[in-house]
Amino acid sequence: AGLVVNASSDGFIIDLTPPIIVNVRDGPRGFGDTKAQQSTSFMQGHWEAYDPESRIEEYRIAIGSVLLGFDVMDYKPAGQQQEWLANNLNLQSSKTYYFVVQAVNGAGLS
């Protein structure tokens, strides 16, 4: 009598859609959205995002002088945290800056 043993992986899903970023706000978490600040050397932001199929693996953060730009600070990995403080910047008075977030899901989509 031969004995047979079967085993299976835990399975996986097909994810064809990128994560959903609900919002990105300037300033520290708990203080809404900052409209102006005095410091020219740092910028802080926070965000909310999710992925209904596969979890978010990583966030990447940038700062731009144009919407969705990264000319002030190129993308940096932020891991799983949903808040970031960028230091050692050289921001100019009376200029608008944008905090940019890229979310990457388990399928590598962003």
Helix and strand arrangement:
Layout: E1 20-26, E2 43-50, E3 56-64, E4 73-79, E5 83-86, E6 98-105
Antiparallel strand pairs: 1-2, 2-5, 3-4, 3-6
Note down, in words, how this protein is organized.
By secondary structure, the protein is an all-beta fold. The chain has strands spanning 20-26, 43-50, 56-64, 73-79, 83-86, 98-105. The protein contains no helices and six strands. A hairpin with an 8-residue loop joins strand 3 (56-64) and strand 4 (73-79). It starts with 19 loop residues before the first strand and ends in a 5-residue tail after the last strand.
Question: What is this structure, in a nutshell?
Answer:
The protein is mainly β and 110 residues long.
Features of the shown structure:
110 residues, mainly beta, single chain
- From the alpha-carbon coordinates, what is the Rg to the nearest angstrom? 20 Å
Largest sheet: 3 strands, antiparallel
What is the overall pLDDT average? 94
The string of secondary-structure elements, in order, is: EEEEEE
Oligomerization category of the chains in this entry: single chain
Distance between the termini: 53 Å
Low-confidence stretches: none
Which percent range describes the beta-strand content?
A: 35-45%
Spatial arrangement of strands, main beta sheet: 1-2-5
The strand count comes to 6
